[in-house]
Write a structure and sequence with these properties.
With 670 residues, the chain is α/β, with parallel strands linked by helices. It has 21 helices and 29 strands.
């Protein structure tokens, strides 16, 4: 029998499962806390715990290891990632403001130089090597990678390839070329995708290295695969170069896991983690692929991924008290460490802070908030104020009142949090679940103290937020239910066949929708609404929340066995699938250009151009599939012709080809 090991690293937990492929059943599962900054501890803990449940299984008995993760998704949702530079070649000055590039750069270096090609793939201006070389010399310390995007690079990648060679020789940094991530023509959007990819390289490399190191220490020589955002598997080596393809990796794996665990073919799958809630429609047993590219944390990328709505809502979501007389609550999008978990890890520090705050009326929020460093050595390239705070945190977690010595240091701490170097603690839904005894494992006493302090806070109406910790916990749970319902309704309206006049976000929160969901039985006008498919709730805490969600939506809710490790299950049931796209364009009658990986090639016959492109794409797709772990990939080609009517005749303007190489990954045979 072939035994597969699935591992999923999330923001809070790392899960591991052993799956018997022949019997199609999970034979063991385990969890460990995700460890920061050294991910190896959490990965190793989960793997060791699951292997301990099957002591007779030798290392050679593991045929394949598959890894999924939400780390890349979480980083983009929370606006984190390592500093990266963006090189834009041949773009107009206004292009930097398109696709959200200016906001995405967030102060990271932007290098704009001459060069680029036109729509036919011909060079418009020579690449300015001297300007690029001078700009690279001025890169600030701490730059982790460089992204390169050239105008019409998908029609001719020569300038991106030349720039990559110069950057690697000059800096030794990893380089991401936009044409390798997408065949789309939208240059600013390609540049954004390349920039986000560059930011994630260091993080995903640490993750893969941690997994490989522990597998080697356990004597497991099975190939390591990683789940891509569309649910397909790729080799660990490939994902190191293109980590952005792992955005929505965890959610994609959870969809596969949901279908495998429940056998359902029509359902809304809702996966709640520590940081995000991911919702996807399962139709005919398969998730849809988003034709516009994955959208995560406000960024619309050009990465092919499942049609998933990702919202910054999870068990560890930060709680906000809204202004106004009703003192409403809001959860997310930023993740904080639950005070129950912080006390579990650092009991003396956290309980001392909570007890001190309980002795004051009212207690300042900062007096019981903790800053936890996610580094063990001083990060390079920090500005002076951030460096001063980081140096103090080298001694370990500290209360904010002890850490911040002057008001001007508060924004510096915020920037450290945004860079993913520091995690703050705070009251969360996880704390509420512990207070209500719906969840165990962390420090319930600390959770109760934290929610007592929160309940004592007063809103704009002068009233306390709640009478006690238990009442506060119910308020938090109700808010999480409300926001989860909104997430599910948004997806349902977006995927529904009805051509609604309003956007899904508006419809989900419309007063008529909210009234209809309450199914009022009286009145001259009676409105009723319910979800037309069941909800599959996934995640370690799904059982805590989704009963109330189903009642609110009037639909069945399935929380399957192993719902807490569905991502890890889904990681090992997928296949490798490597798509490559290209175009044949016709700039003039009788002239056809095949845009090959080596550059454009002209033909007088359209079919000759198509054959040349199909051969080139087939070679690329086959090579990628083999590199991803398939011994004998199967090729499928799809074609789409775009044309126009000219003087009553149909004229072909562009022919798009997509070649996909797929197959099962190699497995170890002992």
């Amino acid at each position: 029998m072939a035994i597969f090991l699935g591992v999923d690293t999330g923001g809070t937990f790392t899960d591991a499962v052993l799956l018997d492929e022949g019997a199609q059943r999970v034979i063991a599962s385990a969890k460990a806390l995700t460890s920061r900054p050294d991910l190896a501890q959490g990965i190793g803990g989960a793997i060791d715990a699951v292997l301990a449940q099957v002591p007779a299984l030798p290392p050679s008995g593991i045929a394949m290891v598959a890894l999924s993760t939400t780390l890349a998704t979480n980083a983009l949702v929370e606006g984190q990632g390592a500093p990266a530079a963006l090189v834009m070649i041949g773009f107009a000055p206004g292009d930097r403001d398109r696709a959200g590039l200016g906001e995405a750069l967030a102060g990271d270096p932007l290098i704009e130089i001459a060069g680029g090609h036109n729509h036919a793939g011909s060079e418009e201006r020579p690449l300015d090597h001297a300007a690029l070389d001078a700009a690279l010399t001025a890169l600030p310390p701490g730059t982790s990678a460089v992204a390169v995007a050239s105008r019409f690079a998908t029609r001719n990648p020569a300038h991106e390839i030349a720039a990559r060679s110069l950057i690697r020789a000059r800096t030794g940094l990893p380089v991401t070329c936009s044409h390798e991530l997408s065949a789309g023509l939208n240059g600013p959007k390609r540049a954004l995708t390349a920039l986000l990819n560059a930011r994630l390289i260091a993080m995903i490399d640490r993750l893969v290295r941690a997994c490989e190191t522990h597998l080697s220490a356990r004597g497991i020589a099975a190939p390591l695969m990683v789940v891509r955002g569309d649910g397909a598997l790729v080799s660990a080596a490939l994902v190191r170069e293109r980590p952005i393809e792992t955005i929505l990796s965890g959610p994609a794996a959870s969809i596969a896991g949901a279908a495998w665990l429940t056998g359902a073919t029509e359902a809304l799958v809702s996966d709640i983690g520590g940081t995000t809630t991911d919702v996807c429609l399962l139709r005919d047993g398969r998730p849809a692929i988003d034709p516009e590219g994955a959208r995560v944390g406000g960024w619309r990328t050009m990465v092919e991924a499942v049609a998933m709505r990702t919202t910054g809502l999870g068990g560890d979501s930060e709680l906000h008290v809204l202004a106004g007389l009703d003192a409403g609550l809001r959860l997310g999008p930023r993740r904080v460490m639950p005070l129950s978990l912080a006390a579990h890890l650092h009991p003396a520090l956290v309980h001392r802070a909570l007890d001190t705050a309980l002795g004051r009326e009212p207690a300042p929020d900062e007096s019981w908030r903790i800053a936890l460093p996610l580094f063990t050595a001083l990060p390079p390239g920090l500005p002076p104020r951030e460096a001063a705070l980081a140096e103090r945190l080298l001694a370990g977690p500290q209360r904010l009142t002890d850490l911040i010595h002057a008001r001007v240091e508060a924004p510096a701490l915020t920037r450290l949090v945004q860079r993913g170097l520091v995690l703050l603690s705070g009251p969360t839904p996880t704390d509420a679940a512990h207070v209500l005894d719906r969840q165990t494992g962390f420090d319930r006493d600390a959770a109760h103290k934290a929610l007592t302090l929160l309940a004592r806070q007063r809103g704009d109406n002068g009233e306390r937020l709640a009478p006690d910790a238990e009442a506060m916990a119910y308020r938090i749970v109700d808010q999480l239910t409300r926001q989860t319902v909104d997430c599910l309704l948004e997806t349902a309206f977006a995927e529904d066949d009805t051509p609604w006049a309003e956007p899904p976000e508006t419809l989900a929160r419309h007063s008529l929708t909210r009234t209809a969901l309450h199914r009022r039985a009286a009145g001259l006008v009676r409105i009723e609404a319910r979800l037309g498919v069941p909800v599959i709730g996934l995640g370690a805490s799904a059982g805590c929340w989704y009963g109330a969600v189903g009642e609110r939506l009037g639909c069945p809710v399935l929380v399957p066995d192993h719902a807490g490790v569905a991502n890890a299950v889904g990681a090992v049931v997928g296949q490798v699938s490597m798509p490559v796209e290209g175009q044949v364009t016709s700039p003039a009658p009788g002239e056809f250009i095949a845009h090959l990986g080596s550059g454009p090639q002209r033909f007088g016959d359209p079919q000759a151009a198509v054959r040349a492109l199909e051969d080139d794409l087939g070679q690329q797709a086959r090579a990628r599939a083999v590199a991803a772990g398939v011994e004998d990939p199967h090729l499928i080609t799809t074609r789409e012709d775009a044309g126009a009517e000219v003087e009553g005749q149909r004229v072909v303007i562009e022919i798009r080809l997509r070649v996909t190489a797929s197959g099962r990954p190699r497995i170890a045979t002992g």
